[in-house]
Amino acid sequence: MTLVLTAALILPLGAASANDSTPPSSIAVSGQGVVSSPPDLAIVKFGVETTALEASDAIDENARKSTQLTVAIKHALGPGDTVATTRYSLDPVYDHRRDRAANQPPTITGYIARNEVRVETANLDDIGKLIDGAAAAGANRINRLTFVLHDQDEARSRALAKAARHARHEAQVIADALGVKLGRVLQADSSSSPAASPRLYQGGAMAMESRVATPVDPGDIEVRASVHVTFAID
User: Fold this and answer.
1) Which of 196, 208, 190 lies closest to 140, judged by CA?
2) Which of 37-51, 65-79, 94-108 is least confident?
3) In terms of Cα–Cα distance, which of 42, 82, 50 is closest to 66?
4) In which order are the strands placed within the sheet that holds 182-192?
5) Residue 231's beta-bridge partner residues?
């Protein structure tokens, strides 16, 4: 757990008349709570890239490999897991040779088709097998691998509770040291950071040669929360 606290003592200045609305003396503290939780969902994006001299050939080859990839992934997924195409593009490949004439535009030498498939799975133990199976089925890129918490509310609540308890504890320590009594809460607000653990697959392109099983360690996800509380003091 990481705890960062700051405190400020606010005292009214001068004597107040009966008609003045003088704010009460107060102590303001800030606390941060951190909770570590294992992820329960993996999101991975596989890419299929194909090139050909003709656009139609690039499209046809990409469609064949993408269909093969989708079938293989669906076969490997469990109940509740999902797979969907999230991006598709077809782009020309230009010849940018330096020896062409200055007034000659680059010529098209081929086409590249790209198809991205997004997979969500709760079976984190077999992510390595999923990656290897996708490579064997036609995927030649992994664009992103992310581990997340499907339901962040419980972890966020625990982080907020920790931050609030520590903020009150520190405020009490300060009040005791100053010889004053800690009173009611005058103001409180909170914030939290999203819980996600992005992992970029190193190398981007996936080699199709013989390879050992891909090791993947999800690790833990840190959920951070901050609270800012102002207490009245007597």
Assistant:
1) 208
2) 94-108
3) 50
4) 6-10, 26-37, 221-233, 182-192
5) 27, 185
Q: What SS3 state is found at 111?
A: strand
- What fold does the segment set 6-38+152-194+225-233 form as a domain? Translation Initiation Factor IF3 (3.30.110)
What does the pLDDT look like over 114-156, one tens digit per residue? 999 999 999 999 999 999 999 999 999 998 899 988 888 899 9
Q: The tokens 């969500």 sit on which residue?
A: 120
Q: Which residue ranges make up each domain of the chain? A: 6-38+152-194+225-233, 41-148
d(CA 210, CA 71): 22
pLDDT at 202 over 50: no
pTM of the model as a whole:
0.71
Q: Cα–Cα distances in Å, from 98 out to 13, 50, 79?
A: 76, 26, 54
Residue 7: what pLDDT? 47
| CA-based nearest residue to 231, from 177, 159, 174 | 174
Class for the domain spanning 41-148? alpha beta
**Alpha helices in the chain, H assignment, sequence order:** 55-76, 127-137, 153-178
